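During the first year of the project, the team set up a workflow for recording each protein of interest as an amino acid sequence followed immediately by a discrete structure-token representation. This format lets reviewers and collaborators read both layers of information side by side without switching files. As required by the reporting guidelines, we include two representative entries from the current panel. The first entry is reproduced here exactly as it appears in our internal archive.
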Amino acid sequence: MPGMENVTRLLIERNPWDGKDVGIPYPTGFHPRTVAEVSEWQQFVLNRNRSTLFGFVGAARSGFKDDFRALLLGECGRAGKGRCRSVDCGGGRCGNRSAETLNLFLDSVFCLQPRGDSFTRRSMFDCMLAGAVPVLFWRRSAYVQYGWYLPGGDEGREGEWSVFIDRRDVRSGAASVKKVLEKIGEERARRMREKVVDMIPKLLYSATEGGLGEGMQDAFDVAVEGVLRRFREQQLRLHREEDGRV
């Protein structure tokens, strides 16, 4: 409809081919009120002793042929003690297991993030708020979704905060999740976790109407600033077009 042509839509999952859609983070369970609370949490997750290389929270889907989540659960089980831990959400069991899920992310260096019911997944933001590095298998799960929040896209900076393993390579056996993550090494993994922790303020929604303050932006601040920036850019284009006609 003509009246909707210039409406900017803020969505937890955007259509990559629609320039008016803007992806914003899924709300999580962490809603701090002050900069001090955020900084304290950042220090906590950054200095956390992580005993597991990678973790996975999810459920196999028996109704899906060659279910990818079931494949990841199997790989996690074969990885061995200290390499992978999982929380099986089969039968809706994760509805009341938020503490167990959070502890898994806090204890893991990396967290596996296959697509959810759609391409994106709230679990990715739970994982990052816990200071773990997300491992993605579909580029559309994040890299073309959250341009205002996550470095990537044309900048080619996805590797600063995430790991991408093509799902087709995992399915065919050409890539092993465990081997890919082991090759990263402790030093690089630490740098990636530092980048994730640095991005935490922009991925959460504070519990105060006035925002966190002290120059720290939360997800809402980033969204509003982005929309206003779009308005200014559009006005500038219109002025230039009018000047050109004159």
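The second entry, processed by the same pipeline in the following quarter, appears below.
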Amino acid sequence: MVLRRLLRRRWVLGVVLGLSLLYFVTSTLKQEERTGRDRTLLQTSESDHRIPWKVKFNLGNSSRQITQCRNSIQGKTLLTDELGYVCERKDLLVNGCCNVNAPSSRQHICKSCLPNGCCSVYEYCVSCCLQPDKQPLLERFLNRAAEGFQNLFTAVEDHFELCLAKCRTSSQSVQHENTYRNPQAKYCYGESPPELLPI
């Protein structure tokens, strides 16, 4: 009862309205500040973004010791490490690298990939993309990356991250927003989107 009477008073309603208005203005200004920071970050980012390319070497005879590997993580049965090896999940070492001596491990394998650079298995796409001879193709892609992809590909630090990002399915892999252009080969590292298959 007392709360009801208090809320009926005009000065209480005025205070509530004033506080609501103050909250709205401050959150709008904070949002604008964040948006402005993001814009300046994009404008000041390097236009000539260089990717450090991996050189091909074999773990067995390399003098460089690899202590940790990044890998594609998401595969249910297969994984790709940053050296281009594809292996079964059970053959992954504790340091994140594929066991190169395991029978399932293969380096730079393009097992399910078509000549246009589209593959049916994500891990094979990443492995194939990591081949040293794919560097000119990827550099051409980066130089011609559309404005819409600029944010994604300027965040890429190296060859492995570029291949992980490039092989993910994107809007280029679909038609009509809900159907893959080629359901058998939807992971692409190539310059062009998958070929459009007739329905």
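For the second entry, the following points were noted during internal review. Confidence is low (pLDDT under 50) at residues 54-64. The CA atoms of residues 93 and 99 lie 6 Å apart. Both points are flagged for discussion at the upcoming steering committee meeting.
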